[in-house]
Amino acid sequence: MVDDASSLNGSMVLARFLARAGLGSRRACEKLIGSGDITVNGTVVTTPATRVIPGTDDVRYRGQSLCLQRAVYYLLHKPAGYTCSASDPNADRLAIDLIAPLDDVRIYSIGRLDRDSEGLLLFTSDGDLAHALTHPSFEVPRTYLVDVTVPVSDTAIEKLQTGIVDRNETLRALSVERVEAPEGIWRLRLVLVTGRNREIRRMMARLRYEVARLRRIAYGPIELGNFNPGYSRGLTDSEVAALKEAVT
Length: 248
Hints:
By secondary structure, the protein is α+β, with helices and mostly antiparallel strands. It has three domains: 12-65, RNA-binding S4 domain (Structural Genomics Hypothetical 15.5 Kd Protein In mrcA-pckA Intergenic Region, Chain A, Roll), CATH 3.10.290; 73-136 and 225-246, Pseudouridine synthase I, catalytic domain, N-terminal subdomain (Alpha-Beta Plaits, 2-Layer Sandwich); 141-219, Alpha-Beta Plaits (2-Layer Sandwich), CATH 3.30.70.1560. The chain contains six helices and 17 strands. Strands 7, 8, 9, 10, 13, 14, 15, 16 and 17 form a nine-stranded mixed β-sheet that branches. Strands 3-2-5-6 form a four-stranded antiparallel β-sheet. A hairpin with a 2-residue loop joins strand 5 (59-61) and strand 6. It is elongated.
């Protein structure tokens, strides 16, 4: 993970400042800058590479003053039926609401799980780390358990790994294996290194398999463990270090 804070009078790139101020990942912050909602010292700025000096320059989002936040990291076992995006107007239950309120810090999810999926979801105020963990160039593995109600053929498993075209995208798993499951359930363990929208469900649908249950059980070095849905906790220092190591 590249640190672009420089020795230029302690300045940093605006997109990175916004990410560390809790507005979202670097990619999301670059879009915010392009929208014209960010001002620096009273002037609208639309260039993500603009440099600002924390504590000196007056940076605002829609008039709200911003400052660097402390970095926090959380793990949540997201239950099915909860939405990751806090901006979804149709969401009746938000995953973020399952984490104890943090009055002084804005947090957001690292990647997403769709409403019907469950499992490991990471939250942070660290926009730099969130950006790196979701960027395809780092190929951070995400591990899932996929349940279906009919046997999965060897041909289907091969196609999941060689690639399936859907909506002009080639979707593929890094690895696929059958794992033990209760009677009447056929379970696959899939490892992906991308985070495309509903990627597994789209692949399975193209192969004419209906997903009965989809759980993420690991994101990079962080594993879900045997916690009940709805459980959340802060990451340990060693877990945070392992995440950073995964994108170094």
